[in-house]
Amino acid sequence: ARVKLADYLNDNDSEVVDYLDDVASDLKRVIPGAEKNRLENLIASYDFDGALTCLKDIADKISIKI
């Protein structure tokens, strides 16, 4: 899920909005609430560059490579 999310953001693909809805419960389990909310807000406002940066920061903190 996390790699596909990064792919959507890299491609500036608006499908990421629907995809985020599909994986929200999975993300909730691995991403702290405030950071998950920030990521969701960036995606909802179509700030895909900001969301990708946020996702990379989150991935670094939880030791996941994207």
Question: What's the arrangement of secondary structure elements?
Answer:
Elements: H1 2-10, H2 15-30, H3 33-44, H4 48-61
Question: What does this entry look like structurally?
Answer:
The chain is an all-alpha fold. It is built from 4 helices and no strands. The radius of gyration is 10 Å and the shape is globular. The mean pLDDT is 90.
Brief account:
The chain is mainly alpha-helical and 66 residues long. Helices cover 77% and strands 0% of the residues.
- Describe the largest sheet: none
Distance between the termini: 10 Å
Radius of gyration: 10 Å
Low-confidence stretches: none
Class inferred from helices and paired strands = mainly alpha
Features of this protein?
66 residues, 0% strand, mainly alpha, globular
